[in-house]
Amino acid sequence: MFRNRFWVSLVLTIPVLLFSSMIQEWFSFTMPAFTGSNLIGPGFAIAIFLYGGLPFLQMALPEVQSRKPGMMTLISLAITVAFAYSLFAVFAVPGSGFFWEMATLIDIMLLGHWLEMRSVRQASGALNELAKLMPDTAERIRDDGSTEEIRVTDLSNGDVLLVRPGSSLPTDGEIIEGHSELNEALITGESQPVPKGEGDKVIGGTINGDGSLRIRVTATGDETAIAGIMRLVEEAQGSKSNTQILADKAAGWLFYAALGVAALTAVGWIIALGFKVEVLERVVTVLVIACPHALGLAIPLVVAISTSMGARNGILVRNRLALEEARLINTVIFDKTGTLTEGRFGVVNSIIAEGWQQDQALALVLAIEGDSEHPIAQGIRQKAEEAGVKAASISDFETIKGRGIKALYEGKSVYVGGPRLLEMLELNLSGDMDRFRNGTNDSAQTVIYLVVENAAVAAFALADVVRAESKHAIKRLHEMGVEVAMLTGDSQHVADVVARELGIDTVFAEVLPEDKDKKVAELQQQGKKVAMVGDGVNDAPALTRADIGIAIGSGTDVAIESADIVLVQSNPLDVVKIFELSRATYRKMIQNLIWATGYNVVALPLAAGILAPVGFILSPAIGAALMSLSTVVVAINAQLLRRTDLAVQST
Asked: Which class is 314-341+467-575 in CATH?
């Protein structure tokens, strides 16, 4: 709409300029004179006011009705005053109206709003890109094994789909057959393809690699992750930050300031010249130049760009105020399990007796523990898969309650278990094996032993695996002047070991889920601004209590109501990105506000005639040009936010 009205108004402005006596004088040319030629300029200017100026008048009406003058009120005041004065001048003072200035001012306003809307649309391009990721059709597998092509809108939970190599996943689901690598860059910000296999969850819109997949649909339509992401981005771009609220207030203040300066201008010039038309011209110039277009663009464009940057980096902002206030956070509390750690047992160390190979020992333990669903058994299986080890052949499998497991291997008795197994077998460890046990006790690790014919031949230490990115994330937060605390229900000893490894400042251990929010309150009572990072489930009270709640690793459940910011990936380094984006965004907002208001601080006194004694008087035309320049500078400065590098590499 702004674009169309701009081009029409621009064409209509041409005759207004050509038949303006001032323009003719400036450029030394004359237009043919004929009956009514003196009305051509005013006639086209009236058309421009009614066509090009109407949107601003319509948008100003709610501000006037609510008695909260803002951007549109000032713009409408400027063009209405210029229009009314010019109509008056046609009859009272021919040749002294502001028709061409009013016409160009409306053109500039239309152009500025067109560019603003276009920039915001471009800044919001993440939404369009997300929407484009979703294919229109899917290949559904029938009961007889054949496939049929159906519209994505007709899919239901439980449907089985065929996803061919190189195609986009039509919806969220779970892989039931096949292995591949999926490109999730536009969803999670992860630059490298992610390996996926049977049992793994997949997100609609991600791009399949070289493998063929069969997936079972788990979510459709508005329930999908991508739909949730789009909702969050839209909500964030529609919400106002404190700085935007400040800009709106500044526009209101500027309205009253413009009226005040106009009144002082009238008084001053009446005293100097008496009641002359030049006085009215000065007052009109002040009101025209007060138009705050740059101020209106200063914050919304930065908001749109920062929100889309966040979405591209796996940061989904539900509350704009939270992103703005993140720059003030001085303490971050991390939930341990599932946030700083992976929430699963993994083999972190091992020792093998002389005469045995690690793969041989691991194959034997895998055979004995292979069918168990215990977290320790799962850790052993993961280690075996990474090492490419296959289970050994055993027989006479027997569970020893509370102690471990017994089996026969090549006619020998084989046991797998923890310290209580050693007690039962009355085995005493010595040498390297004893030192290994003592070291694991100091590190709060769980140890299982492989015993063959009453001799301990191997020991494997397992622990809740610390995420590879956690240590670097905490180091970066410390560099940014942010303290780090850890909250966990684990024992004090286990918590202290993890805290020492990661360099955490404060540890809250043995905390029940319902008491986590009390620990947040303790830090707040010390005057600290606290951000809580958790999984968004049992951490909900603490996320709500914190100044900023950050839900981590919730890309497939983006509707977490307790969090202000949702991180798509389970990566603590993304918390660092939040603070970097917050600080960069705030800097741009303040820079734009200073520039936009600075223009009015300089232009209004000049328009009032403060330099008239030295022969300089700012005309409406020059004022309009300065206003356009101010808008361009603000727009360019906002776009420079895109150059902020949010990439945080783990080391």
From this structure: alpha beta
